[in-house]
Amino acid sequence: MRMTREKTVVQLTYLPKVFPVNCYLVEEENSLTLVDAALPNNVKAILQAAEKLGKPITRIVLTHAHDDHIGALDGLKERLPAAQVFISKRDARLLQGDRSLEPGEPSGPIRGGVPKKVLTKPDVLLQDGDRVGSLLAVAAPGHTPGSMAFLDTRNDILIVGDAFQTRAGVAVSGQLKLMFPFPALATWDKQTSLESARRLRDLKPTLLAAGHGNMLVQPKQWIEKAITEAERSLAK
Questions:
Q1: Region 152-166: what's the mean pLDDT?
Q2: Mean pLDDT of the chain, nearest integer
């Protein structure tokens, strides 16, 4: 996997030129937090990246429960049994394959690759505003009902899962980019995604780190443009 560092965050990218799938290692003083778990065949590469950084992975945090974000979870947990696993309380159901909606949620179907045979049980069910080391958990539903983003409070780097994509252009989840349409096709509710994008914008991130595509430094203008495009699309 390709390693790209920005301050306290290291992006690990599988197939960067073909079908980029990202996960992130966030450095703490004596440990690492892994944000997302990429694909099942990425276990070894993730562990090797941690070895290069010289610190143990003690936390595995999931932005949402799609296959390309939890793929290596079981393999990593087997090798790192002491590592705590974190996911939103809402997407913990999705992690177990439960696509049913809760009362009051938009009625569209939950899309994308929902896992069917995950063995790992989360240790901590996150809610908006919780802390995981230096990371602040921020509810960002839309791509899935329980999607979360994570803000590194030391430098305002924002890891967003699929709330935005940067591959083939910056887009709010649900807005189609023809050169990389997959996040849009896997999005549950576009209007909810837009509302979450506005909230993430208001955090004023210094860097946008998405599930698919390169990290984007000083992303304000790109985020604003993506939100405007989504507003226009949904107004039609």
A1: 98
A2: 97
- Provide the pairing of β-strand 84-88 with 57-61: parallel
Q: Which amino acid, 21? A: V
Which residues form the domain of 203?
2-235
Kindly report, residue by residue over 43-57, the tens digit of the pLDDT. Answer: 999 999 999 999 999
Hey, CA dihedral for 199, 154, 146, 225, is it positive or negative? positive
Query: Does the structure show a pLDDT above 90 at 105?
Result: yes
Positions of E strands within the chain: 2-6, 9-14, 21-27, 32-35, 57-61, 84-88, 124-126, 131-132, 135-139, 148-152, 157-161, 164-165, 171-172, 207-210, 216-217
Residue 102 has pLDDT above 90, yes or no: yes
Residue where the block lists tokens 């837009």 = 194
Domain count, the chain: 1
Cβ atoms of 215 and 11 closer than 8 Å: yes
Token pair for 64: 């949402």
**Phi, psi for 71 (deg, rounded to 5):** -60, -45
Instruction: Decide: pTM greater than 0.90.
Output: yes
Cα distance between residue 158 and residue 160, in whole Å = 6
Q: Which CATH number is 211's domain given?
A: 3.60.15.10
